[in-house]
């Protein structure tokens, strides 16, 4: 069940989308059994969406800010073109260890470089250019993540920001992020009501 999309709509959408690799069932089961906030997983529908975006965009270098237990990085890695890779950042060593293990089970460990540490510090060490960026980390820092990655975005690259419907709440930090991006003359964006919202952002031509 999601907070913003009716449960029956979510179920119907999942039932009429390509089923995920069985590795995700095992990953979801372990995440629910071991984590206090298992809902942080992107889940079946959004995972399929991310995989589809990667398959269409064919990025050579993907940056993920917020790995959690690995669903999103693994789903994207499965669709990477030959030679493509992902740099995935997270501050939690325990959940990153789970992500590494399931990436190995899914056969994509060689395509993902997991980095543990504060995301903004990691970003300062990375040059890019990034063809695709997925932001799904500490919500009060979204504007800082965005400003750090935009200069490192490849020509024609895309930023995807997760959970942006949280910004419907007047006091939620993603309200500031949503307004910041909408009002930024450097980019154009569209907020899609997938689960808790995914905003697609690209530089204006």
Q: Gap between N and C termini, in Å?
A: 38 Å
E-strand count: 7
CATH classification class: Alpha Beta
Oligomer: single chain
The name of the CATH architecture is: 3-Layer(aba) Sandwich
Strand and helix order: HHHEHEHEHEHEHEE
Helix content: 40-55%
Within CATH, the superfamily carries the name: Vaccinia Virus protein VP39
What fraction strand? Answer: 15-25%
Strand order of the main beta sheet, please?
Answer: 3-2-1-4-5-7-6
Give a verbal description of the structure.
There is one protein chain. With 205 residues, the chain is an alpha/beta fold. It has a single domain, classed as Rossmann fold, CATH 3.40.50.150. The protein is built from eight helices and seven strands. Strands 3-2-1-4-5-7-6 form a seven-stranded mixed β-sheet, with helices on both faces. Helix 7 links the parallel strand 4 and strand 5. Helix 3 packs parallel to helix 4 and helix 6 runs parallel beside helix 7. The chain starts with 6 loop residues before the first helix and ends with a strand. 41% of the residues are buried. The model has no long low-confidence stretch (mean pLDDT 95).
């Amino acid at each position: 069940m999601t907070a913003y999309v009716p449960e029956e709509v979510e179920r119907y959408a999942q039932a009429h989308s390509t089923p995920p690799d069985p590795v995700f069932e095992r990953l979801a089961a372990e995440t629910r059994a071991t984590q206090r906030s298992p809902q942080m997983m992107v889940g079946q529908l959004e995972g399929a969406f991310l995989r589809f975006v990667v398959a269409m965009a064919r990025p050579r270098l993907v940056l993920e800010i917020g790995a959690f237990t690995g669903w999103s990085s693994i789903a994207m890695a499965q669709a990477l073109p030959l030679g493509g890779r992902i740099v995935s950042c997270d501050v939690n060593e325990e959940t990153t260890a789970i992500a590494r293990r399931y990436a190995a089970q899914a056969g994509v460990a060689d395509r993902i470089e997991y980095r543990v540490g504060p995301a903004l510090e990691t970003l300062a060490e990375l040059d890019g250019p990034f063809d695709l960026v997925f932001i799904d980390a500490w919500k009060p820092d979204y504007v800082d993540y965005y400003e750090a990655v935009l200069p490192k975005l490849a020509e024609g690259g895309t930023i995807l920001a997760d959970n942006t419907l949280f910004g419907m709440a007047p006091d939620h930090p993603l309200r500031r992020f949503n307004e910041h991006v909408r009002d930024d003359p450097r980019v154009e964006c569209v907020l899609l009501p997938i689960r808790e919202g995914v905003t697609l952002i690209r530089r204006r031509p």
